[in-house]
């Protein structure tokens, strides 16, 4: 099953529901799922394996905990990015 940005433009509560539905469908059918997303929480919440790609290059590939330990600077920027308003 291919999901292309399934939570794009959705509020966080609906995004959580979509993630739960993806997991339920995967577990109920034992089908492989490929989720293309910029939603960090969704990706790390439902994935068995993650590939982080930028400009056509795979920057990190592996289980979520392996990707979190990637030393690649862009991977670390993506993982630690947080909106903080300037005072």
Radius of gyration: 14 Å
- Average predicted confidence as pLDDT: 94
- Count of distinct strands: 4
Number of contiguous helices: 4
The helix/strand class is: alpha+beta
Strand order of the largest sheet: 1-2
- As an assembly, this protein is single chain
Biggest pleated-sheet summary: 2 strands, parallel
* SSE string: EHEHEEHH
Strand content: 15-25%
The number of domains is 1
Low-confidence stretches: none
Report the helical percentage: 40-55%
Separation of termini? 44 Å
Global geometry: globular
Describe the protein's architecture and organization.
The protein is an alpha+beta fold and 87 residues long. The protein has one domain. The protein has 4 helices and 4 strands, in the order E-H-E-H-E-E-H-H. The chain has a two-stranded parallel sheet. A two-stranded antiparallel sheet has the order 3-4. Strand 1, helix 1 (12-29) and strand 2 form a beta-alpha-beta unit. The longest helix is centred in the N-terminal third of the chain and has 18 residues, at 12-29. It is globular. The mean pLDDT is 94.
Write the layout of secondary structure elements.
Blueprint: E1 2-4, H1 12-29, E2 34-36, H2 40-46, E3 50-54, E4 57-62, H3 64-68, H4 73-80
Parallel strand pairs: 1-2
Antiparallel strand pairs: 3-4
């Amino acid at each position: 099953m291919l999901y292309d940005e399934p939570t794009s433009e959705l509020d966080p509560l609906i995004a959580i529901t979509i993630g739960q539905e993806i997991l339920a469908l995967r577990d109920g059918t034992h089908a492989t799922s490929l989720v293309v997303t910029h939603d960090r929480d969704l990706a790390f919440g439902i994935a068995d394996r993650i590939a982080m790609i930028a400009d056509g290059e795979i920057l990190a590939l592996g289980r979520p905990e392996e990707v979190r330990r990637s030393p690649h600077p862009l991977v670390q920027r993506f993982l630690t990015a947080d909106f903080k308003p300037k005072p």
